[in-house]
């Protein structure tokens, strides 16, 4: 039986392992985290609506339910030409027929970034945000700045959705506990129209939401640096803040940057439509580690990472003669689909070549996202079939 090793136990890697197992491969998943961190529902940790344990699914439980092997270790090197990878504890490994890279992405480093916290970081970082918000709530006043950055070399690696979600949730949380008027919330981003990939109508609706929620907005100004209590822009104007919640744009994973695999300037793996890494017959890449090619509004998303995992499993099975079918591609599945939560409701953001919409879903949107979280856990643990 052919052996496939999947590097990275996140949203893309886990779905790839599940799909490969269904195709009848011998699968090993290697990750540096013990759990699958379900990022889309981690947005509720800062306001205490979800506990960290509700947002993590132990990889051991998924592996047991889905029948793949699990190794917890850190990948420190990949050598494509030699067909090997190296783990921190176990050392060099060559015992595989196919390798799937699903290590996620890193972030660009801005000057003074250590003075900020990101909603798209590690589980530990999101807990730090919760602690800081708890402190401000205890003091019953504060200034919070929320923002995200861009990467001109990888426009699809900008992650703004979760920043908006946490900001709207914090607004509604402060309102609910009756202290919103003592807080100043400011949103900032270097691009003139952050969120533009969702279309003009969505931008107008977001503007209205900012106004209704009393959120200040500073956009179109490049960020010079962050200090302990301020965001400083290129024209030396600044935002004073007790807490700076900032998500830089994605950057290539250091292991990929240091590898001999085919990659873009920004350090994302260059792949064919089949998800095979260009020039390497037995190496595939899924999710945020890969450079996504397609329309200018494209974005790295969890649902696309999962599609890429299933496409990869299918194509390896075809290559190995397990089934006689055509190869599949990921590009036809590129769209933006996000249930943007506001804490008291939500909005369905959708973008494809023919449509750009943001449909308000008061109250029900919030519960739909909560329901998705429950479905996701049950599906990964093999308790219910895949619905979406
Ligand atoms: C807060 C937030 C909210 C989001 N909301 C949505 C949403 O609503 N809808 C949507 O579609 N997408 C959403 N996304 C995007 C989505 O989460 C990502 O696109 C998705 O997680 C990408 O999957 P991945 O497997 O490529 O990377 P990840 O999920 O980041 O997984 C990478 C894995 O690799 C492991 N790893 C990293 N380095 C190493 C190493 N050296 N050795 C071993 N293991 C390693 C990590 O621990 C991790 O488990 C959101 C993202 C964030 C951050």
Polypeptide structure, described:
This protein is of the alpha/beta class and 388 residues long. It has 2 domains: 3-105 and 252-335 and 369-380, 3-Layer(bba) Sandwich (FAD/NAD(P)-binding domain), CATH 3.50.50.60; 109-249, FAD/NAD(P)-binding domain. 28% of the residues lie in helices and 26% in strands. The strands form 7 sheets. It has a 5-stranded parallel sheet, with helices on one face. Helix 6 (200-213) links the parallel strand 12 (183-189) and strand 13 (216-219). Helix 1 packs parallel to helix 8 (302-319). The chain is globular, with a radius of gyration of 21 Å. The two termini are 29 Å apart. 44% of the residues are buried. The model has no long low-confidence stretch (mean pLDDT 96). It binds flavin-adenine dinucleotide (FAD). Flavin-adenine dinucleotide (FAD) is lined by residues 8-13, 31-33, 39-40, 42-43, 74-75, 102-104, 119-120, 161-162, 255, 287-289, 300-303, 305, 338.
SSE map:
Layout: E1 3-7, H1 11-22, E2 26-31, E3 35-37, H2 39-42, E4 56-58, H3 59-66, E5 69-72, E6 75-79, E7 84-87, E8 91-93, E9 98-101, E10 106-107, H4 123-139, E11 142-148, H5 161-176, E12 183-189, H6 200-213, E13 216-219, E14 223-227, E15 230-233, E16 238-240, E17 243-247, E18 250-251, H7 254-257, E19 283-285, H8 302-319, E20 336-341, E21 345-351, E22 356-362, H9 364-380
Parallel strand pairs: 1-2, 1-9, 2-5, 9-19, 11-12, 11-17, 12-13
Antiparallel strand pairs: 3-4, 6-7, 7-8, 10-18, 14-15, 15-16, 20-21, 21-22
Helix pairs in contact: 1-8
Bound molecules: flavin-adenine dinucleotide.
């Amino acid at each position: 039986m052919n052996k496939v090793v999947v590097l990275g136990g996140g949203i893309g890697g886990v779905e790839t392992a599940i799909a490969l197992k269904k195709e009848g491969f011998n699968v090993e998943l290697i990750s540096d985290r013990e759990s699958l961190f379900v990022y889309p529902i981690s947005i509720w940790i800062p306001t205490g609506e979800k506990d960290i344990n509700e947002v993590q699914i132990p990889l051991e439980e998924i592996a047991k339910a889905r029948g793949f092997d699990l190794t917890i270790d850190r990948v420190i090197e990949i050598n494509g030409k030699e067909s090997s990878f190296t783990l921190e504890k176990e050392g060099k490994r060559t015992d595989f027929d196919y390798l799937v890279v699903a290590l996620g992405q890193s972030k660009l480093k801005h000057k003074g970034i250590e003075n900020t916290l990101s909603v798209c970081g590690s589980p530990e970082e999101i807990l730090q945000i919760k602690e800081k918000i708890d402190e401000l709530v205890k003091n019953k006043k504060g200034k919070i700045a929320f923002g995200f950055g861009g990467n001109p070399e990888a426009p699809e690696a900008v992650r703004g959705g979760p920043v908006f979600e946490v900001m709207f949730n914090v607004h509604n949380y402060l309102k609910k506990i009756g202290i919103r008027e003592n807080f100043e919330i400011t949103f900032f981003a270097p691009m003139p129209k952050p969120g533009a990939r969702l279309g003009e109508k969505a931008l107008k609706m977001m503007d209205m939401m900012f106004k209704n929620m009393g959120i200040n907005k500073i956009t179109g100004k490049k960020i010079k640096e962050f200090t302990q209590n301020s965001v400083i822009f290129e024209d030396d104007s600044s935002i004073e803040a007790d807490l700076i919640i900032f998500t830089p744009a994605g950057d290539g994973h250091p292991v990929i940057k240091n590898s001999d695999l085919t990659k873009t300037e920004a350090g994302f793996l260059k792949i064919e439509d089949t998800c095979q890494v260009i020039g390497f017959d037995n190496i595939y890449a899924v999710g945020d580690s890969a450079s996504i090619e397609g329309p200018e509004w494209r974005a790295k998303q969890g649902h696309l990472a999962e599609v890429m995992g299933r496409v990869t499993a299918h194509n390896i099975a075809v290559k190995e003669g397990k089934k006689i079918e055509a190869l599949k591609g990921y590009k036809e599945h590129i769209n933006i689909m996000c249930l943007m939560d506001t804490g008291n409701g939500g909005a369905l953001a959708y973008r494809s070549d023919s449509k750009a919409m943001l449909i308000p879903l008061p109250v029900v949107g919030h519960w739909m996202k909560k329901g998705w979280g429950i479905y996701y856990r049950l599906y990964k643990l093999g308790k219910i079939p895949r619905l979406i």
